[in-house]
Amino acid sequence: MNRQKRIERNVMNYVSTVTHTGTRLENNNQVFYKQWFGEQEYLRNNPDHSGFYKIANDHLDRTVPWCLLKGEGNDTIVLIHHSDIVDTDVYGPLKDLAYFPEKLMEKLREGKLELTADAKKDLDSGEWLFGRGVADMKGGAAIHLSLLEEYMDEEGFKGNLVFIAVPDEENLSAGMRGAIPLLKELKGKYGLDYVLMLNVEPHDRVDPEVQTFYDGSVGKLMPVVYVRGKLTHVGHIFQGFNPINLLAEIVRRTEVNPEFLERVGNTVTPPPTWLYSKDRKEVYDVSLPMAAAGYMSILTLAKPPKDIFEAIRKISEDSFDKVIEDLNSSYAKYLELKGEEIVRLPWKTNVMLYGELYKQAVADSGDEFVKAMEEMMKGIKQEIQDQKLTTINAAYRIIEKTLEYVSDMSPMVVIALAPPYYPNVNNLMIPDKKPRIDKAMESVEELAKNTWGQECYTQNYFTGISDLSYAMFEADKENIGYIEDNMMLWKDTYYIPLETMKELSMPVINLGPWGKDYHKYMERVFMQDLYDRTPKMVDKLIRTILG
């Protein structure tokens, strides 16, 4: 069977396997891989070279399908992709056909769904394959699978390939985080030396003849800011402290704040933005809210977590100072109009990281606090598993429970970190391993130029968030401590084996096909890339690196 036929077969079979992210349907990846593993003679002859690695403490009982091609030597490339897809509700009446590209495209040609001009042009060209997951990212996975089939039939393959299909990329990356111990086990058992993690996420393209590669992936932090106020009736406003006022000031000072902008190489991050903010009231009354909270998204390229946290702390302190100043100014005017002596309000700036708050609760309440937290976490864990509680609302509850056991009852800002956390990664972080990858990529660029007249562009960071973030970790112990101390749900429902990541650190490359409109009903992949160009470039990269 030639390569294109292999890819066509694999992509159609894989796309028709329904693996909606965040649901038990993700376990259908086991059905697909049991069949695929069983079809490979090499894996039948080496039954210990494939399996399904159970993700620890996973409420959906998901596994990571994996296989190993053990060749000559120790050099090893890790081939990754995510097996989960977003659902098909956006396809409306065609939702059940979204897994069958040919049938879907037939209906699209009949005008069953309205297409943009660009999507209509691509459909009419016959050069694009439409369907859920064809681009993001079962098309790229089919490329890896088909090349593996070829390599497994070769005698004396030089080097090793570890293939993993991770679930949950579209949500909290439980699959990739859960696969890190697997990579460590395989390394020890088979004497593997990891030289590259190769992903096949699709890429956007402005110029049809310019291919984009990525040698890094953007990081992401989700800081939570919780503001506790002081309760009072609105008729006695100066006896209380409105947390909405302070949270609003923090939001205003952080939203699209250029202080957080980063440029590394040819990539610039967008500034932070708030995704949610609200008081903690559940019913209407004429009292000030007791608390208000929200969370924002911050993308990073090189800044360590400590620097981000300290910047948010400083902004929160300045915001607190400003709110107190404004309150005292208003209070002075109020007292003046009443003909009373002007005095200052009692409020003082009080900002803590969650890790600091936790230590204070232990100091103030000891075992009573620790036991109360343990009991509460059991309930939170179950509610999250039953999908009755979001991680953000769980974070609020944890902060509130901790505050109950702290003696200080004054207004306060608590800064924490909510899942998910994606470390920023780039091959510049491991300079001793970078030249080998750069040289191999040059050979891929030469192939593209000489074969198709295609130019190549290496973007230093994949900005769409990817599982490559867990391929390396170069932060020091202080920054690891910042994450562990301030991350909500750490080790209860969310965990990253940071020390193991640091131990395994390997270069990264994303080399995938051209795709468009991921997550939409117009999702599609460029067939020339899927069946010809990208497989040849991936093959060239693998063979060059492994010698």
Question: How does this model look, in words?
Answer:
By secondary structure, this protein is an alpha/beta fold. Helix content is 41%, strand content 19%. The protein has helices at 3-15, 28-39, 41-45, 101-109, 117-125, 138-152, 174-190, 243-254, 305-338, 354-365, 367-385, 391-404, 434-452, 477-486, 498-504, 527-546, and strands at residues 50-54, 63-70, 72-82, 128-130, 158-166, 193-199, 210-214, 216-217, 219-221, 223-228, 263-264, 267-268, 273-279, 291-300, 351-353, 412-417, 425-426, 455-459, 508-510, 515-516, 524-526. The strands form 6 sheets. The protein has a 6-stranded mixed β-sheet, sandwiched between helices. Strands 9, 10, 13, 14, 15 and 16 form a 6-stranded mixed β-sheet that branches. A hairpin with a 2-residue loop joins strand 11 (263-264) and strand 12 (267-268). The longest helix has 34 residues, at 305-338. The mean pLDDT is 96.
